[in-house]
Write a structure and sequence with these properties.
The protein is mainly alpha-helical. The protein has 26 helices and two strands. A two-stranded antiparallel ribbon has the order 1-2. Helix 2 runs parallel beside helix 8 and helix 16 runs antiparallel to helix 17. The radius of gyration is 33 Å and the shape is flat.
Length: 633
């Protein structure tokens, strides 16, 4: 029966059939199911250590007498100081009253004796079996099993599944069978989906064997079925996201020489541990970084299962918005937002997979795709930034609180800049072609724009914007324009958004909007200089030019600010130096507008010289390649 089922799968997806046939051996199935059942039994029995038996403490959670004793102790802890205070009052002049004093002392002794007896009963005696709430204990026991299995599912599926997928691709690459798969008539999507579904099949068996207990324990713990199903849907989306990027990482990381599965699974494990701690101790979701945080399922699990994190603050995801849409107010909206976040990532992962699978040397994204990719992330960044919350209070917290959009953006501006710097840095690496590609482009496609031909209609410009092998500078400039346009728009309209005339944008008023816009232009020009340096380094004949290019760009970006900081050259004292660093806005405030403008012109001059040198190298590379080709004939 199993073989017939696998044969039917083979008709639908031959690659999945290949993976299942190689892994669904009887031994593997028995081991997977056996491990799963053993883990379930261990989880079920573990909490029986605390089973409330005949010697269950009176102070235990499940003793029905404990709340009454504790309530009486609380009352006594308030009465005893009051009586003691009255004794002090009647002990001295002029309120001395011997009769009242004796009555109070008798009452105090009675209270203290009662307190001692209650403490002795509560902590030194056992709860009568008839007073033990076994129903509550079993509910908590089932909840413990459900939550334990839920967390284990997340870790085993994401960490182990990621490792297996990348390790399988690495093995196929070493054996040469991956090239064979590239030559088969199957589509890229069919092959890669087959790997995604087939390679971690043993992990799937372990989880599937535990699903009945998972569902039973959840229902026995009085957890809503809608919440259990929402978790299952969320976990499927989460696995699809991580497995898609595991496939992509496996295809682009051949130079790790077998270390890539450990690196990727370790990164996933670190990410999960980080986010589970954030979900346990931090409830802030009204910021730009929320898109990254909800890639992990733990925040949503804390929302669905309130007892997962004992100190979890439920209002966190309740307040979550996306472009002011209160999606956190309903389970459907919150689940849809998570799936949308996963869906965007999965879409771009598969765009890259379809390009990279057949041709391992091609760029992960084309220039045209990069524009939509960067624009899509701006939509996500600003969607999670623009959330309405009472973030401004005057004159102090709790008094006349209101929402200030400028304050919200200002507080998240660091996140927006950092995420976009990483995004642009990645686009520089992805879009910048290497020497051979530029050489081919220069030899066959590159030509000067004639005097009669309009620049904007020239094939050179179209190729620079859309071409696969042309230099990346214009494409990087377009991506920077997409990134910085929302920021510049906000700088321009920020005063109009300051309805309550607060001091939120005083920093902008202090430096002036013109200098604020110029600081953005400085940042863009420095990014273009880095892109030009990267592209120039990729023209080297050294076979390790990729590593040299990335290393050089990282050094140019981060070494000067580090040296300035270590040498005590601070922006307030030497603003001009900081205008030429990776963080030019640090020196803008203490610089005159004309100084900022002249610095921008100087950076444009450097960029022009770098471009002139790069174009010269491209021409020479094309000419030398053409001469070599003609000489060979």
């Amino acid at each position: 029966m199993m073989l017939n089922f696998i044969d039917k799968i083979g008709n639908w997806n031959p690659q999945l059939f290949r993976e299942l046939k190689g892994r669904l051996k009887v031994f593997n199935i028995v081991i997977a199911v056996g491990l799963s059942l053993l883990g379930q039994l261990g989880t079920f029995l573990y909490q029986f250590v605390d089973y409330p038996g005949a010697k269950y403490s009176m102070s235990g959670t499940y003793c029905n007498l404990a709340p009454g004793y504790r309530e009486r102790l609380n009352i006594l802890s308030q009465l005893i100081p009051q009586v003691q205070q009255q004794i002090n009052t009647y002990s001295g002049q002029p309120n001395f009253d011997k009769v009242q004093l004796q009555a109070l002392k008798t009452q105090l002794a009675s209270f203290q004796t009662e307190q001692t007896n209650i403490n002795r009963n509560l902590y030194e005696t056992y709860c009568p079996t008839a007073q033990i709430n076994f129903t509550l204990w079993w509910r908590d026991h089932w909840e413990y099993i459900f939550l334990t299995l839920s967390v284990v599912f997340v870790f085993i599926l994401l960490v182990a599944g990621t490792y297996l997928i990348i390790n399988n691709l690495a093995q196929e690459e070493r054996r040469g069978t991956l090239n064979f798969l590239r030559l088969t008539p199957q589509s890229e999507m069919s092959i890669l989906i087959g790997k995604m579904l087939g390679v971690p099949i043993v992990i799937y068996l372990i989880v599937f064997a535990a699903l009945p207990l998972h569902l039973l324990s959840g229902l026995s713990a009085k957890i809503a079925l809608s919440h259990i199903l929402s978790f299952d849907i969320l976990l499927v989306g989460c696995c699809a996201f991580f497995y898609s990027y595991a496939l992509l990482f496996g295809l682009i990381s051949r130079w790790f020489s077998g270390f890539q599965p450990w690196l990727a699974s370790g990164a996933v494990l670190l990410f999960l541990f980080t986010t589970i701690n954030l979900a346990s101790y931090s409830s802030d979701s009204v910021n730009t970084a929320t898109w990254l945080r909800i890639l992990s399922p733990f925040d949503m699990m804390g929302y669905l299962f309130g007892n997962l994190f004992r100190n979890y603050r439920d209002q966190s995801l309740d307040e979550l918005q996306f472009f002011y849409l209160p999606l956190g107010k309903s389970l459907v909206g919150l689940l849809a937002l998570h799936l949308f976040n996963y869906g965007v990532g999965i879409y771009w992962a598969w765009q890259a997979l379809q390009r990279r699978f057949r041709n391992p040397e091609t760029a992960v994204l084309s220039k045209g795709q990069s524009y939509f990719f960067v624009g899509c992330f701006q939509f996500i960044f600003w969607g999670f930034t623009l959330q309405s919350v009472n973030n401004s209070c005057y004159p102090y917290y709790g008094s006349n609180c209101h929402y200030d959009v400028n304050l919200q953006i200002s507080e998240n501006l660091v996140f927006i800049v950092l995420f976009n710097m990483a995004l642009v840095f990645a686009m520089m690496i992805i879009l910048s072609p290497h020497r051979q590609q530029i050489q081919d482009w220069s030899r066959y496609s590159y030509h000067e724009v004639s005097n009669q031909q309009k620049f904007w209609r020239s094939s050179w410009l179209k190729d620079a914007i859309w071409g696969e092998k042309s230099p990346s500078l214009i494409a990087i400039a377009i991506n920077l324009l997409i990134v910085m346009t929302p920021v510049v728009i906000w700088i321009i309209i920020a005063p109009a958004l300051n309805f309550r005339h607060s001091n939120t944008i005083n920093w902008m008023n202090d430096i002036g909007r013109m200098k604020a816009v110029l600081s953005v232009a400085l940042l863009v020009s420095m990014a273009m200089i880095y892109a030009a340096i990267l592209q120039t380094m990729l023209m080297l004949k050294n076979p390790q030019r990729g590593i040299w290019a990335v290393g050089t760009m990282a050094l140019v970006m981060f070494l000067p600010p580090a040296i300035l900081g270590l040498c005590g050259i601070y922006p307030e004292n030497y603003p001009l130096v900081w205008l030429f660093s990776t963080f030019p806005w640090a020196g803008v405030k203490d610089s005159a507008t004309i100084t900022v403008f002249m610095s921008l012109l100087a950076e444009f001059t450097v960029l022009g010289l770098l471009n002139f040198n790069l174009n010269k190298q491209i021409k020479l590379a094309g000419e030398s390649a053409s001469k070599a080709l003609l000489a060979g004939r």
